[in-house]
């Protein structure tokens, strides 16, 4: 039962995380381009503020449950090329770390106010692509 709860929480948080990125990249950014500068900045700031409040908790639960789910397989990381499952698990963990690095870079750049809208968009696109690759690895782990 614990495994089912962990897996469900992990999947729901992954959907929320990737859904937020998808919304920002595919819907919000193009929609904001059609607005006047004042309206665009105000809407972007309000949505970004709310997304940051939510996404911190989402990321915490996502990574916490991910660690709990990966823990029983930690011995496979000693030789990641020994099996397809071990290779995909290693790649999935690498992508998860890269996503954290992107996320921390985004926070740092935003706090320093040294990133423009275009840069934030590109970083979000990169985050989305990394997250999609991670999902592909997660699905392939149990199919290959």
Fill in the keyword field for this structure.
4 helices, mainly alpha, 144 residues
Description:
It is a single chain. With 144 residues, the chain is mainly α. It has one domain. The protein is built from 4 helices and no strands. Helix 1 runs antiparallel to helix 2, helix 1 runs antiparallel to helix 4 and helix 3 runs antiparallel to helix 4. The protein is elongated and about 55 Å long. The mean pLDDT is 90.
Number of domains: 1
Low-confidence stretches: none
Structural class: mainly alpha
Helix content: over 70%
The span between the termini is: 25 Å
Give me the secondary-structure topology.
Elements: H1 2-33, H2 37-70, H3 84-112, H4 117-141
Helix pairs in contact: 1-2, 1-4, 3-4
The gist of it:
The chain is mainly alpha-helical. The protein is 83% helix and 0% strand.
């Amino acid at each position: 039962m614990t495994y089912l709860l962990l897996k469900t929480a992990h999947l729901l948080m992954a959907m929320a995380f990737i859904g937020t990125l998808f919304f920002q990249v595919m819907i919000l950014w193009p929609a904001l381009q059609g607005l006047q500068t004042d309206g665009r900045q105000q809407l972007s700031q309000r949505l970004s503020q709310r997304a940051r409040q939510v996404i911190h908790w989402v990321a915490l639960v996502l990574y916490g449950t991910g660690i709990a789910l990966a823990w029983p397989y930690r011995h496979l990381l000693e030789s990641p090329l020994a099996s397809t499952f071990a290779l995909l698990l290693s790649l999935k963990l690498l992508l998860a770390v890269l996503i954290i690095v992107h996320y921390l870079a985004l926070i740092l750049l935003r706090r320093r106010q040294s990133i423009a809208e275009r840069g934030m968009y590109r970083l979000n696109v990169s985050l989305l692509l990394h997250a999609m690759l991670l999902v592909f690895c997660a699905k392939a782990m149990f199919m290959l």
